[in-house]
Amino acid sequence: MDVLTDGIVLKSRPYGERDRILTLLTPEHGRITVLARSVGKNKKQSVLYAQNFVFSHYVLFKGKGMYVVDSAEVAESFYGLRQDITRLALAQYFADVASKSGEESDAAALCSLLLNSLYLLSATELDERLIKLVFETKYCVIEGLFPSVRCVHCDKEPTKWSFKGGFFCDSCGDGYPITQGMVAALRHMAETEGKKAYLFSMNEDSSRYLSKLLSDYVSYVTDTEYSSLAYYKSLLI
Predict the structure, then answer these.
(1) CATH of domain 81-236
(2) Cβ(74)–Cβ(49) under 8 Å?
(3) pLDDT at 17 over 90
(4) Overall average pLDDT of the 186-203 stretch
(5) How much is the pTM?
(6) How do beta strands 166-168 and 67-76 pair?
(7) Could you give the residue range(s) of every CATH 2.40.50.140 domain in the chain?
(8) At the fourth CATH level, which superfamily is domain 3-76?
(9) What is the pLDDT of residues 42-57, one digit of tens each?
(10) According to CATH, where is 1.20.1440.120 located in the chain?
(11) Cα–Cα distances in Å, from 222 out to 63, 143, 146, 226?
(12) Residue 48 in contact with residue 81, Cβ under 8 Å?
């Protein structure tokens, strides 16, 4: 029986001389691996659907051990990413993080987050650091990995962030220092839905500091050092 699904290519790698193995993030089935046969050899089907970050409508059938692409119709290629190497590197980091999603995560919400993030990187001039902050925060919320932005012991406004223990006020625990502006930004990003999540401002120093904290936290909770993130950072120097 054929399976119809939308999917974003998180990873595409060669398989033999003509085929490719695609890792797709789908809203219905979560993260799946599919085989794309004779990519580029079928004149009736564009090779674009097998490239990283491309969002397509797929018809799949069950092969031996994995799904096989029967047909694919590209819905969005995010072409603008190919014109900016820094944003392209950040998009790869987003895809790498999304590939760490758990089996029990809300795949539809994660797909929506990744699609929105890729669109904002590709087609708008919104500050990429702001897009990164929202993506990392929302990813952790979707995965159930983001703590309440209150002191875990007394419920006061926090001034410290411990990756292991959560948020603390000065009296209850220790961790990385955070300002009230950062607390407000984290709470806003975690609790606000849609485009409004991006409607806040921070000074550059606070934005840089919070960006590093969130990257470190994502690495901590996913137990992964992301080479794509290191490459992205190298482009900012």
Answers:
(1) 1.20.1440.120
(2) yes
(3) no
(4) 94
(5) 0.94
(6) unpaired
(7) 3-76
(8) Nucleic acid-binding proteins (2.40.50.140)
(9) 544 568 899 999 999 9
(10) 81-236
(11) 31, 10, 12, 10
(12) no
